[in-house]
Each structure stands twice: as structure tokens, then as C-alpha cells.
Write a structure and sequence with these properties.
It contains 8 helices and 12 strands. By secondary structure, the chain is an alpha/beta fold.
Length: 319
């Protein structure tokens, strides 16, 4: 893999706790006030941009989120190379996925017009799959830009029913994010990445395989680890039980970072939020050295990426 450095040229976010980019950027320093949703008589902590409508089609919800995101972008995505990260669809020829894409192209005809556009329907793991493809694209195409765009929502009746029944814990949320990635002389390098788009049999085996692969490919301890944990006990158990497999690449100096504690569960969108947080942390000098982002989607698609700054700092003019 070519080691071209990259950085964020433009960004836009709309999240359950933060309806615009500026508000989203402050979530880590000004934690949001808790919100509650009355769902079938149960009061749930939740953060949604729009009130959940039980009879609303999930596709319509995603399109509404993308519409709100586009309001901030003022046509910036028109005819651009867009890598669209979506919730998990296990089959590439899924009728649900095809229906979503058809409706999306009708509602936003300019969004996926470029021949270089791609779709990654693998939940939060799709973010690192898309980043790997984007990094290769900008390595071979001088001055190219790739937009990583993600949208997802937990405002689905079966999901909220699971929270209400105590089967899921944490804060269900939703959002849409767009990051414009471009090559730059001084930025962040993607040193290593691995993905698996085949669903695993259990979360334990999926995370164990991810960690073992990571440990086999690193020679020095990590400075930071970004985990897809938004505060739900189930998510915490998934990585904590397998943490032992990182022996040799983590030590007492390794920091564990959980950006989604401040956002609630964003699904596919959460992976892109964590990537944005990681790149911002490098830019602002809050992290240094090697950083790993791990992603495990609800259906156990998984991905891991190792990042490092290409120079001592980042070119702030490019970010």
C-alpha cells in the first residue's frame, strides 16, 4: 500500500446531540445534557434529531438525515467521488439495499453521479474499508479528493424495543457525517489495515481474531486505541474480554479512547465520527505516535486500521 499522507479538507456533521458541525465538534469538551424518550411507556435515554415515528420506513429516516447533512454542504457533494457508508446489508444484492440506493438517487440525483463513487454497506466497519479504498485512490490520483459519507439511525422500532426491554443499554442516537479526504504533504498515514466483510459466528471470535491479527502485525506498543464503545455494557464486554490478545502491543502508556461515549450509539455513522475524532486529535497535538481504530458492526463485520503522523505535526492549512 502506498503510504501517501492524507488529511481532512472539509467536514460536515449532524448528530442526535448536535445538529450542526460546530456543535458536534464541542461534544467531547462539553458533554451534552441527557435526553429522554417516552417509548411505549418506557423512558429511555436517547438522542435523536427527529422524533422517532414507529411507522416510518428506515430508508426514509436515512434520507432525512442525509438531507439535513446536505443543507450544511451547499452542493459540495455534487458530482464528487463519494464513498457512502451505510448500515449493514449482509447480501450485496439485498432488495432493501437496492431500494435504498434507488430512492437515494431519486432524491439526491447529484450525489452518486461520478463513476468513481462506491457504497460500503457494512456498518461502522465500512468506514475503515472506505478509508482504505480512499487512501489508495488519492495515492494514484494526484490532487484527488474523496468524500466519506455515512448515515445511520437507531430510531427503528425493533431497536428501540430492545433498549426498552433492557436487551441493549446505552444511548441510541443517529447522525450523518461527511469528510472530504485529500492527500497532503504533512498529514496522517494509514500504515496498516485489515477488514473482514464475512459475518463472524460470535462477537467473541470476531474481536479475538481482530486483536490477534493486530498483535501479529505490530512491532511496538501503541500510543492510543480507539474502540467502538458508546457506553453499552454489551459493547464493553466485547472488547474487554478479548483485550488479553493485545499482549505485547499495549502497555501502561497506551490510552484507550471512546469518543462515542459523548454521542450515543450512531451505528455506521459512529465509525466515521471516531475517524474524524482521531484525525482532529493528531491535528491538535492531543495524540502522537501510532493509533489503532477498531470497528465491529452489529452484524460482526470488522475492520482495523493503524495510523501515524507522517511528520512531527500536521499542516493546519490543509485541515
Amino acid at each position: 500500500m502506498a503510504n501517501t499522507a492524507f488529511c481532512i479538507k472539509q467536514q460536515a456533521m449532524t448528530l442526535g446531540y448536535a445538529s450542526d458541525t460546530l456543535a458536534a465538534a464541542t461534544l467531547q469538551v462539553l458533554p451534552p445534557e441527557p435526553r429522554y424518550l417516552n417509548w411505549r411507556g418506557e423512558m429511555l435515554p436517547a438522542a435523536f434529531l427527529f422524533a422517532p415515528v414507529p411507522e416510518q420506513e428506515f430508508t426514509d429516516r436515512l434520507l432525512d438525515l442525509l438531507a439535513k447533512l446536505q443543507q450544511q454542504l451547499d452542493g459540495a457533494l455534487h458530482n464528487q467521488t463519494v464513498y457512502l457508508i451505510l448500515p449493514e446489508y449482509t447480501e450485496p444484492d439485498s432488495s432493501e439495499l437496492n431500494s435504498l440506493l434507488q430512492q437515494l438517487m431519486r432524491r439526491f440525483p447529484e450525489l452518486l453521479q461520478s463513476d468513481s463513487c462506491r457504497v460500503f454497506p457494512h456498518g461502522s466497519a465500512g468506514v475503515l474499508m472506505a478509508l482504505n479504498a480512499a487512501q489508495q485512490h488519492i495515492s494514484t490520483q494526484s490532487n484527488e479528493r474523496v468524500w466519506l459519507v455515512a448515515a445511520d439511525s437507531m430510531a427503528q422500532a425493533p431497536v428501540l424495543d430492545a433498549y426498552a426491554a433492557g436487551e441493549l443499554s446505552g444511548v441510541p442516537s443517529e447522525g450523518a457525517i461527511a469528510l472530504c479526504i485529500t492527500g497532503c504533504q504533512i498529514g496522517v498515514q494509514l500504515q496498516y489495515s485489515a477488514t473482514d466483510a464475512q459475518p463472524a459466528s460470535t462477537a467473541q471470535s470476531a474481536v479475538a481474531a481482530l486483536f490477534l491479527q493486530l498483535a501479529a502485525n505490530l512491532k511496538t506498543p501503541l500510543k492510543q486505541l480507539y474502540f467502538p464503545d458508546s457506553g453499552g455494557s454489551q459493547l464493553t464486554e466485547q472488547w474487554l474480554e478479548q483485550y488479553q490478545h493485545l499482549h505485547g502491543v499495549v502497555d501502561s502508556e497506551t490510552s484507550l479512547i471512546f469518543p462515542s461515549y459523548a454521542t450515543g450509539e450512531l451505528g455506521a455513522c459512529g465509525g466515521l465520527y471516531r475517524l474524524w475524532h482521531l484525525l482532529q486529535a493528531y491535528k491538535q497535538g492531543r495524540i502522537t505516535g501510532q493509533t489503532v481504530q477498531c470497528e465491529l458492526s452489529a452484524r460482526l463485520f470488522r475492520a482495523v486500521a493503524v495510523f501515524a503522523p507522517s511528520e512531527a505535526g500536521l499542516d493546519n492549512k490543509d485541515v
